[in-house]
Amino acid sequence: MSFSIPFKKISSLLELIKFSHTIFSVPFAIMSAFIAADGMPTFRQLILIAGALAMARSAAMSFNRIVDVEFDIHNPRTAYRVELQKKIGKKNVWIFTLVCMGLFVTFAGLLNRLALYMSPVAILIVFGYSFTKRFTDLSHFVLGLALALSPIGAWIGIQGRFGITPFLLAFAVVLWTAGFDIIYACQDIEHDKKLGLHSLPKRIGLLRALILSGILHFFMVVALFVVPRYSDMGIIYSIGVCVTAALLFYEHLLVKPKDLSKINTAFFTVNGTISMGLMGVTLIDIFI
Question: How far is C-alpha 287 from the geometric centre of its chain's CA atoms?
Fold first, then answer.
């Protein structure tokens, strides 16, 4: 019995921070790391990069749950987060957040000096996102920026310097994330109006928001097609980008202004397939 209580709390923590959604950022970090290494990074580098990414995201998400309690409790879609925090204990959530933040900085420092120096900037961005819906309609892009740190951080972790390729990947991630977050935010328009929160769907309406999301995803594909100009990516990677474009088109077919019932499929299933698929074709292209 003594072992079941901690296990339940850990399980609740993973559910609270939606650990499964790490699938959106990890593949881009892996892509960037392998391109930066022009092949296989060392096992140590991969472990440290994956660990740093997981810790940064976990810290950011648990922090978000703490500071958004007053909003989450009034939203039927997010009210479960408050119940989970009660089960875990607010003190435990804070401890988890601080431990994850400390491990992130440690892993970054073990990679190289530039990664260590950039870690406070990353923390500022990923923690700062949690406050953006209080004052700006552009919170979707800040979330995109937070996820876009993954390919930049992975590149720095391998090469110890900046490069054009990771910034192209990061730009693609910003557009992609902002696009699908706008879609996801469409289901919270009434909630945002009641609580005075900001979002683009609330500002410009469902139809225009979905059109804007489509435009952002179009330019994401353009950014991905530019990557081979600054790297050794070839035809397999380009085919993967074409498949990504098709999947994004399908995502936008799933969600209509008068029918938001398939948002979860569009958000998680399709975008998870996109990130994993892009990583797969990138690695295949590198090693063939």
Answer: 26
- The answer to pTM > 0.90 is yes
Q: Which two tokens stand for residue 187?
A: 């289901």
Q: Domain locations in the chain?
A: 4-287
Contacts of 97 (CB under 8 A, 6+ apart): 59, 62, 63, 66
Tens of pLDDT, residues 81-128 = 888 888 888 899 999 999 999 999 999 999 999 999 999 999 999 999
Q: What is the pLDDT of residue 2?
A: 42
| pLDDT for the residue 120 | 97
pLDDT of 3: 41
**pLDDT under 50: residue ranges of the chain:** 1-5
**The CATH fold of domain 4-287:** Tetracycline Repressor; domain 2 (1.10.357)
pLDDT at residue 7, rounded to an integer: 63
Q: How many CB atoms lie within 10 A of CB 43?
A: 8
Q: 């699938």: which residue's tokens?
A: 23
DSSP letters spanning the chain: -TTHHHHHHHHHHHHHTTGGGGGGTHHHHHHHHHHHHTSPPPHHHHHHHHHHHHHHHHHHHHHHHHHTHHHHTT-TTTHHHHHHHHHH-HHHHHHHHHHHHHHHHHHHHHH-HHHHHHHHHHHHHHHHHHHHTTT-TTHHHHHHHHHHHHHHHHHHHHHSS--HHHHHHHHHHHHHHHHHHHHHHGGGHHHHHHHT---HHHHH-HHHHHHHHHHHHHHHHHHHHHGGGGS---HHHHHHHHHHHHHHHHHHHH-BTTB-TTHHIIIIIIHHHHHHHHHHHHHHHHH-
Q: Are 200 and 185 in contact (CB under 8 A)?
A: yes
Rg of the chain taking only CA atoms, in angstroms: 19
